[in-house]
Amino acid sequence: MYCTCSNNGASNYSVVGLCDVSKSKFKTIAENNAWTEISVPEALILPDCKPNIEKIDKVYINAEITSTKVINTPVVPTDNTTRQLKPNSEGQILTGKKLLVDGFLCQTIVYTAAIPEQAVYTVKFNVPFCTFIVLNGNTNVDIDKFCVTPCIEDVFISLINCRTIFKNVTLFLYSEKVEMNCPGGRRPVTTADCRI
Q1: Helices (H) and strands (E) in the chain, counts
Q2: Sign of the Cα pseudo-torsion (152, 158, 164, 168, in order)
């Protein structure tokens, strides 16, 4: 079957749900808070019940953190001269503690269908992600609790073909030590749970 979709004007879509760093708590990061930045590449395939894509119009996106867990890890050696932990060749330092972070990218893609009427359709995807944040070495695995706040910095989207979408999300994750449990923390069961 011949597809008439194209990537011409691939950046002519809008994204709703990006983090406005100038208006958020991420503008300045506290010295004692840990963070990481990840890239989440995705190949999203249209369900059989949806018509082919001619053009992507808009992306609604939200990141939901479903669980966090502090674990023990190896500790990198200390430099004998400076008494500082030695980073690996990528600059990563292991302090002996990491925060495992699980979550979902909840997204709705609005597109113009490759049909004569050029009707507009939506398709929803929940894509899991998992990463870690290196914590201070004196973090207590059994007692300390952390909340992670996501910030979606960028979304790149492109058509591979009329039924397959490549999407890459740049996600900033900011952790804060808290006294009580974080709000939320549940896995989306249906797309309705994603609040977008």
Answers
A1: 0, 7
A2: negative
Q: What are phi and psi of 194, to 5 degrees?
A: -85, -10
CA pair distance 45, 26, nearest whole angstrom: 33
3-state secondary structure (DSSP) of residue 44: strand
Bridge partners for 101 per DSSP: 68, 131
Whether 55 is in a domain gets the answer yes
pTM, two decimals, is 0.82
Q: How many domains does the chain have?
A: 1
Q: Is residue 142 part of a domain?
A: yes
Evaluate whether 155 touches 168 at the Cβ level (below 8 Å): yes
Give the pLDDT of the chain (196 residues) as one tens digit per residue: 345 555 554 568 999 999 987 776 666 666 667 999 999 999 999 999 999 999 999 999 999 999 999 999 999 888 878 878 888 888 888 899 999 999 999 999 999 999 999 999 999 999 999 999 999 999 999 999 999 999 999 999 999 999 999 999 999 999 988 887 666 655 444 443 444 4
Q: Which domain holds residue 69?
A: 14-77+90-178
Asked if residue 159 is part of any domain, the answer here is yes
d(C-alpha 153, C-alpha 137), whole Å:
28
Rounded-to-integer distance, Cα 114 and Cα 119, Å: 8
